[in-house]
Structures are given as C-alpha cells and as structure tokens.
Amino acid sequence: MSTARPPQGFTPTGTIATPADRRRVVFATVVGTTVEWYDFFIYASAAGLVFGQLFFAPLGANSVLISFATVGVSFLFRPLGAFLAGHFGDKYGRKVVLMWTLILMGAATALIGILPTYEAIGVAAPILLVLLRILQGLSAGGEWGGAVLMAVEHAPKQRRGAFGASPQIGVPLGLLLASGVMAVMAMIAPGDAFLEWGWRVPFLLSVVLILVGWYVRRRVEESPVFTELAERKEKARMPIVQLFRKHLLLVIIAAFVFAGNNAVGYMTTGGYIQNYSTNPEGPLALERGPVLWAVAGSAVTWLLSTFAAGVLSDRIGRRTTYIIGWILQLIGVFTLFPLVNTGNIWLLFLGLAILTIGLGFTYGPQAALYSELFPASIRFSGVSISYAIGAILGGAFAPTIATALVQATGTTVSVTWYLAGMTLLGLVATLLLRDRSGIPLGPEREAEQEQSPIYGLSKA
Prior knowledge:
This protein is mainly α. Helices cover about 75% and strands about 0% of the residues. The protein has helices spanning about 20-55, 65-75, 80-90, 95-115, 120, 125-150, 160-190, 190-200, 200-205, 205-215, 225-230, 240-265, 270-280, 290-315, 320-340, 345-360, 365-375, 380-395, 400-410, 415-430, 445-450. The longest helix has about 35 residues, at about 20-55. It is globular, with a radius of gyration of 21 Å. The two termini are about 30 Å apart.
C-alpha cells in the first residue's frame, strides 16, 4: 500500500495552490475527454451513415437497425469497464486509469479504420467490428469517472461545478470534432468515395489525437483526495462490494438521472438524426454534408450550455440547475421533430440547438453532483458505475428504439413521447436527491459523506 505524502501545496479539502495548476488540470481533462469521445462518436456517426451498407448489407432493410444496435452493444460493456476502472481507480489512483482508457479507446478506433468490409472478408467483418466496439465500451466505462474526479477533486469547493464542467464539455467537443471531420471528408470524398475510403480517415486520425491526449494527461498530478487516502492508508479493499452493500439505491437513482439526459442526447451522438435526415429512402433525403455541419453547430450550443450550467450550479445548487434543465430539455424534445421534419437544414439546426440547451443544463452539473453523492474511499466506483448503468438505461439503444418506433408507427411522434418519458424519469430521480453542493470531499470527512442524500431516508 502506498504511503506517498501529498504533493506540496495540496490541502486536505482537495484544493491546489496555484492558478497554473488549476489550468493544467482543466486543460488535461478537456483534451483527454474530447479525444475519448471523438473516438466514440465517430463510430456512432459512421453507424448512421455507412456501416449498414458496408458491414450489414445482407440484412437488407434491417441493416441500419442492426448497425445502430452495435452502437448500443458497447454500452452493455460499460459497466464492466466501470467496475474495473472503479476498483483500480479507488485502489491505485485516478491518473493511471485515465492513461490506460485513453490507449484502449484509441487503439480500437484506429483498428476500425483499417477493418475490411463484409464484401472483402464476409461475416468476419461485422464480428470484428462489434469486438472493437466492445473495447470502446470498456474504455468509455472507465474514462468518465476518472476524468470527473481529477477535475472535481482538484477544485475549490465553491467552483466544483465549473471545474466539473471541463470533462463534460469534452463530450460536445468530441461531437463537434467528429461531425466536423466527417463533414470535411464528405466534401473531400463525396458519394461513393466516402463509402470506399472517406469514412476511414476520421478513425485513423485517432492515432494523432491519442498521442496528444497522452502527453497532456501524463503532466497532471494525481487527485489530492486519492493522495490523502493513500497517506491515511484508508483506501477501500473491496470498493465495489462496499458500494453495493451500502449505496445500491443511490446508484440506481443516480443512474436514472443520467439516463434521462443520455437517451435524448443520443439522438445526435448516437447517429439517429444523421441517418433519419440523410436516408435516401426516408422522408427527408437531405445531403450528408449539410446535416453533419448542422450537428457540429449544435455541438457548439451544447458546449456553451454545458459550461454555463456547471457555473450556474455553483451559485444556485446542482438540484435547482437540473430542474431548470429538465424543463428546457422537455421543450427541446417537443420541438425537435416538428423542425427536423420540415426538411429545411436551418430549421433542422434550430431544432438541434434548442434541444442541446436543455441537454447542457442536465449534463453540465453532473460531474459535481455525482462527486458529492459518494464517500471518498468508494467515489471512483460510485460515479463510474452509476454513469455506466445510466448509459445502458438511457443511450445504449435509444437510436435502435427510435428506429423501431418509426418503423412500427410510421411517425416520429412516438419517438417524441419516448424521449419525453425519459426526460420525466430524470426529473423524478433528481427530485429524490438532496442538494449536497459544497460538501467536503476529503477522506477526513467521510462520516459526513456517508449520510444518505436520498429524501425519505435517514441522514445519519
């Protein structure tokens, strides 16, 4: 067991001494999560645009449905990634886990870029594609929790929402980068050229991005909370066992909070809108390039609202910010398809922009909210596993469900009600939680952190 002492300048509450240190942590979490989610969203975008034709063509009309299902398969392995990352992150530190998740994600993404299609190697092609997607899911399951804790546990308590928004904005930045690169390749290699080789370039670019992310992350100090846990020799021996024995209900409620956001977010990050609006046999049949640029533009509004919500949560609390967000998200859900179905690219962008404002407000405060829910010794496990379960309940098969609903009902109204239901689920879960903004995060206050944040349960 490590007996390393905290680096000079750290305090037991998990703050760091200089603005330069804070900037380094924020920059590293933004760059690292952007690279990770670029890789993740490149797959989702390609699933909506090309994988149905290239890897699942023999399935005919069901090829797109199965292609979207492979997006969801990775979510089934997120809990395993979260279990492993939570265990090792609570025992050996946040930083080492982040380095390895970055490598795993990058390697899987680059290999997809050189993967032969069904026409070349038959059924082996979709099998290999799914296996590589599973590796992406394992990486994503461990990435988020580590990035969140590196940001929040380094932050002054009055700015945890703002610091916690740094890994959160890596998601819209990853979507912006993924959609932008795909749009550029649609211009460079239009039509059949995009199907032949253009889609591969964004996957191969991952190699360069991973090297950048590795360089940036390795220069950041370990989380001060974990360093103090090591100093006190208070690291949990079996953190996952303790988590489920003491905090199972909290994990489920926290997962529902994220599920309400994630199901709606995967209308774009999961590739559904991209496929629905560009499908040549669909009701809109829009050009691929303009749709990708509209998605990229909506990623900007998502980024801005995510950061704004993180900052606002430091002023009015996580819970109140979330409630505002659920209302805004519900408005976005009911305006999305009426605007998309006009077939006007500018109105499509407007629909996505309105939606992403609510998405940002139900995503920006999440890092701080989750970090303040769980005790220090099992915090990595708590935030990672809650996030992974929420992703399965929410985004895992949202594009697949949306596609099946439209096929069954012939209208996107059914999708709207599905997304509205998930939004209300998130709202109810939020209302069940007490606001713990500013609670001490250090291991010296673990008894206080163990008190239940769930309304109706004893706080002791």
